[in-house]
Design brief:
With 330 residues, the chain is α/β, with parallel strands linked by helices. Helices cover 27% and strands 25% of the residues. Strand 11, helix 6 and strand 12 form a beta-alpha-beta unit.
């Protein structure tokens, strides 16, 4: 007799997409050389979410691609996407998946990461606790608004960054470059971006008198006659970005570009970008663009980076080696 029973175990990777960004999920699947798993997702007439995996996932490592964003083409909003991710996780846990990994490159509610006024929630922490409560084993995300958000989780969080791919996109520009941090909180990120490009660094003096309102003071640093690149993690209504571009132009910059990981683009974002002085605005596809985007917007796909990370998680290889351990941007 023996105290244990040994049996061969073949690991399986299965990739499924929610309705928030199926195009990104399809490209990740193509990079991995797999098909997206069959899944039924729908919204009942009373707005409740439904999910069912259409084949067995027992014993598989299940990766669920679902940024917490809206998608007009599939009819979901940001809150729908979050709830749909939760029911997908619950269904996967109930179907005896070996591991459930949430691939959510855009982490919703990430800007509500602290109390800015009395009696406010810390919504980013609430989302983390909810994901853990339904049974997520691991989270794969990109460019969190604050690195400390990882501390809201008691499970592993793989924090990817689009910094390198965005910097490489500007590699063909002239040599007289300056990277402009939109505020003091983004200085470390912009410093790494500038170092990778061999560029100088400037900082904008910005204050926020209210939520989604920003005031640009002046530019700290020399941008006169140079090509300026304003780098941030998020573009939301683009009002702040437009004001930043105008401030840099007034300070004498010869050309002005913008780069950001997450194209939230809510409200009057497209109008603000169309009226801004930016020659090009470069973003990734963590969030699908709604129709009517200005022609100045370029989209760089993060699918190869996410696919490489998924492959490494599945094979238990080092994820930090993707960046040489330099993905700590804050």
């Amino acid at each position: 007799m023996t105290a244990s029973l040994q049996r061969g175990y073949d690991k399986r990777l299965m990739l499924f997409s929610g309705r928030a960004n199926p195009v990104l999920a399809e490209e990740i699947a193509r990079q991995l050389g797999v098909d997206l798993g069959p899944i039924t997702l729908k919204t009942f007439s009373n707005d409740e979410m439904y999910c069912r995996f259409d084949e067995s996932i027992r014993g598989a490592d299940v990766f669920l691609v679902q940024p917490m964003c809206g998608n007009p083409e599939t009819g979901v909003n940001a809150n729908d996407a979050l709830l749909e991710l939760l029911v997908m996780v619950d269904a996967a846990v109930g179907a005896s998946a070996h591991r459930v990994i949430a691939v959510t490159p855009w982490y919703g509610y990430s800007r509500q990461d602290k109390k800015s006024a009395p009696r406010e929630p810390i919504s980013a922490r609430m989302v983390a606790r909810t994901l853990e409560a339904v049974g997520v084993d691991r989270v794969l995300t990109m460019d969190l608004h604050a690195g400390q958000l990882q501390g809201f989780f008691g499970i592993p969080v793989d924090h990817m960054t689009a910094l390198m791919m965005l910097a490489d996109h500007f590699a063909g520009l002239d040599d007289d470059l300056v990277v402009v941090a939109p505020d003091a909180g983004r200085v470390k990120l912009n410093k790494q971006f500038a170092t990778r490009m061999g560029a100088g660094l400037a900082i904008l003096d910005k204050e926020r008198p209210a939520q989604q309102v920003a005031e640009i003071g002046h530019v700290i640093g020399d941008v006169r006659g140079k090509t300026a690149i304003i780098v941030d993690d998020i573009i939301d209504t683009a009002g702040t970005l437009r004001a930043a571009g105008e401030a840099v132009s007034r300070a004498g910059a010869r050309r002005v570009f913008a780069a950001a990981t997450h194209p939230v683009f809510s409200g009057r974002a497209y109008e603000n970008l169309a009226a801004s002085p930016f020659e090009r605005i470069v973003v990734t596809d963590t969030i699908p663009l709604r129709p009517g985007a200005p022609s100045t917007i370029d989209v760089v796909s993060c699918a190869p980076l996410l696919a490489d990370s998924i492959r490494r998680i599945f094979t238990d290889d080092s994820v930090s080696e993707v960046f040489g351990g330099k993905n700590h941007l804050f």
